Amino acid sequence: MGYIEVENLTVTYDDFVAIDDISLYIEPGIIGLIGPNGAGKTTLIRTFLGFLRPKKGRITISGLKVPKDILSVRAMVGHMPEKEVVSPKVSGVNFLVYCGRLVGMSYVDALERAHEVLNYVGLQEARYRPMQTYSTGMLQRLKLAQAILHDPKILILDEPTNGLDPDGRLEMLNLIKEIAEQRGVTTILSTHLLPDVQSLCNQVILLRKGKVEYCGSLKELMESRVNQYEITVQEPYEEFLEALSRCEVRYEILPQNKISISLPDGLDYKKVFECARLTSTIIRSFIPASGNLSELFQDSLQG
């Protein structure tokens, strides 16, 4: 399985810094690449593929250096772009043969492999039809077929479920999971659909303003909120906050008498109610922080 190592990477557009001195290690698995618009996701992908040259830093993909070894890198990386790559009058199979030839496959090998991947993604009945007759879902499947045509070790998918209905989205996610797990392909999923990341990925990279906010296990990120709660109290509650501080409970005062609290490891949540009782504070609501990636994402943007 492939891996990607990034060290002190900076990428600029003239004077604008799109990627700002980031370092990360992408292990084999399914990795979610997330962040708001302008965070640097597309720039990072383009730099991995050698379309952009970094101002400084180093990228190593399965032992190969970018951009020095870029032709070898492209032979081991499959890329499913967000934008359509349609040649209206070209058939699906001929399009794939052309893509295969671009990565160095012989015509015979490219043709054989084109039929294999079209069958795999469910386009066997449409292989000879011109691409202009394909639906959005079919075009997405064709782009996925193009990305896996040369049996890559690393797969980079840019918004693969864009424009799909719920059934089509589920089918696409199942295909991606099968490719990653059964074929052992390191898969990077760049998407704005956070539920897709939560259901599919075991790692996540969160970018913000060209910086890495988080890079690591999705499970650990979700579990980071296990000891977090949001409570609503009745005023006055200053003595209650002092009692929480003595118990090493971290808190943040929110609008409308709400307080976000984070308990230290080993402290039972019942201690919060004890602090309230001892200070005669009324707790009107006590809600565990949600283990929802969308909320974690929003929290990071506000932090």
What does this 3D model show about the protein?
The protein is of the alpha/beta class. It folds into two domains: 219 residues, Rossmann fold; 78 residues, Alpha-Beta Plaits (2-Layer Sandwich). Helix content is 37%, strand content 28%. It has a six-stranded mixed beta sheet with strand order 6-7-8-3-9-10, sandwiched between helices. It has a four-stranded antiparallel beta sheet with strand order 2-1-4-5. Strands 12-13-11-14 form a four-stranded antiparallel beta sheet, with helices on one face. The longest helix is centred in the middle third of the chain and has 17 residues. The protein is elongated, with a radius of gyration of 24 Å.
Largest sheet: 6 strands, mixed
Strand order across the biggest sheet? Answer: 6-7-8-3-9-10
The coarse overall form would be elongated
CATH level-1 class of the largest domain: Alpha Beta
**Total number of helices:** 11
CATH-assigned fold name of the largest domain: Rossmann fold
Fourth-level CATH superfamily of the largest domain: P-loop containing nucleotide triphosphate hydrolases
List the domain count as a whole number: 2
Poorly predicted parts: none
User: Beta fraction of the residues?
Assistant: 25-35%
Distance N to C terminus: 35 Å
For the CA atoms, what is the radius of gyration? 24 Å
